[in-house]
Amino acid sequence: MRKKTLKTLVLYGIIILAIACNQEKPKSVEIGEPIDLDINTTSIAKIQPTMYGIFYEDINFAADGGLYAELIKNGSFEFPDPKMGWEETNSLKYSLNKNSGFGNITNYIKDQNNKRFSHFVVHQADNYQIINEGFRGIGVKEGEKYDLSLKMAHAKGIDKVHFNLIDSLDNTLASVSFVPDSEDWKTYEAVLEPNKTNAKAKLKLTFEGKGSVDIDRVSLFPQETWKGRKKGLRKDLVQLLDDMDPGFLRFPGGCIVEGRTLAQRYQWKKTVGTLDQRELLINRWNDEFAHRPTPDYYQSFGLGFFEYFQLSEDMGAEPLPILGCGMACQFNTGELVPLGELDPYVQDALDLIEFANGGLDTQWGSVRNDMGHPEPFNMKYLGIGNEQWGPEYFDRYKIFADIISEKYPNIVLVSTPGPFPEGDMFDYGWEQVRKLNVPIVDEHYYQNPKWFLENADRYDSYDRNGPKVFAGEYAAQSVQTVSPENKNNWECALAEAAFMTGLERNADLVHLTSYAPLMAHEEGWQWKPDLIWFNNLESFGSANYYVQRLFSNHSGTDLISITQGGKPLIGQNGIYASAVKDLESNELIIKLVNTKDVTKNVDLNMGLKDLTKIGEVVLLTSPNLTDENSFEHPKNISPVLKEVNVEEGVVNYGMPPYSVSVLKIKM
């Protein structure tokens, strides 16, 4: 059950009285007589609970360094370069004489899974230290508590190991010391309370005594995580997601599903179980773009498939996992698994369904139970492949579909016509999904704002007897796709809002929609634009985020029509519109987008007399199309709550320039 009235009241309870009041606003010139709009409250189609959701991919440091709240990078020394993320000072680096220098690390293979620990040799304790840099620094807040944990073993001559949180000037923010007192591996834990807030802290290790000690699994987590879970998710980021009231959560991507090679593909089974059981994997965005290389970008899978399912459940969202289909990313190697060798890939899909939905007497249901969730997650959707195209993909999809549908006929499969919204590849893809009777087709479009305005009628002419549509990845690009100069500006957000009225008008066909990508670290991003921005201490929603939230929070239950002269509004006079009614809150909800720089007056004829005298308007607007939200001004473009009068079933409303308005009228 999706959250409704209470969440909406909380989200918009704080009224923003002015937006960017220090900027010069364009003149609002009213255009002649009001434009008559007619609203027919007869239900056309049901709005699916999944209509507005979230696409999540581990790009832009969205998992490690982002949503996953671990603050130590490479704390288990498992990166291919085991010292990446760690800086040694006064270390023994090149000397063949083991008694010279101050200290050093030697890394050992611990088991067949290539797990590592670090063997520290200390010759002069006063001078040797090692420092972890975190993810572009370690963000800590004064007054909050942080759980430090690590493992130590085999200490010889080392009396104490000191752990200090330090700032850039080596001032101590918090500290603790441990006595390594066990020959076998032992876990040591403490709570650190920083005396100052610092976005660029580091963790420094120093030693007392001369000798050696083995260290592994160095970890630092805020206690303030989402729902207070130990080693959990970053609270402010999940709150931004939960505030969207998403109908679904698609995970884990995106191109990372496929991998640049099959060996580097995402394998869900390696992301569940205890943290010790999860295998590190290079992130496919590690060096994908020359303009934003991130050689330290790896996936620890502290955020794995169990956590994705759990997060979906927390938010009341349907889980929608995407699995590889035996094809590496076709923008990279395009490596293929022969059709005759596809069985392990199909079995992974069957086992995932069992992990999500199976009883405790099943192998993978038992794994879920061991992780603390005996109840099934009740997964209904499963995507096969991400953005694949061509005969090779559809040959593989058919094998998956035949086997999965026979064993689990209630699972709704999602396919794709490829990565582009038009062209020969797209047309071929749609021809195939129709032949294969695919239930839902995932379309992607990263285009300029003009394209979104011109394609608000995209689905008006689609075949209603074919597959349903999942607008799975879309975002207006202010410059061009993949450009590092793209902005999350108001022009893009406004164009997306206009396009979304077209998605909503076609709710009988369009069952799922989501913006992409979702998150980006201020210093660790590879792709722009993005819905949510964060650094080590702060986060904010872009203008695009507030558009998405506005539509999702007011999705309604039933589609109704809003027309001018019997025709839907698809850009006439710069106006785009859609309308729904919500049978749970007993409201009419009208979404109006004004893409012009002048006020547009409209008369909304409800066709009902029994309406409240006062309605609400949730308004998003900004005077300049280049305006953005930022860390300095995180709510520069954010919702404002207003009132409108209702007289004899008619609302006269002046749409501000460059605005998105959601009118709510009680029936």
Automatic annotation (TrEMBL):
The protein's UniProt keywords, in alphabetical order, are: Glycoprotein, Glycosidase, Hydrolase, Signal
- Record's catalysed reaction(s): Hydrolysis of terminal non-reducing alpha-L-arabinofuranoside residues in alpha-L-arabinosides
GO biological process, alphabetically ordered: L-arabinose metabolic process
Q: Which family does it belong to?
A: Belongs to the glycosyl hydrolase 51 family.
Q: What is the E.C. number?
A: 3.2.1.55
TM region(s), chain numbering = none
Q: What is this protein called?
A: non-reducing end alpha-L-arabinofuranosidase
Presence of keyword rRNA-binding: no
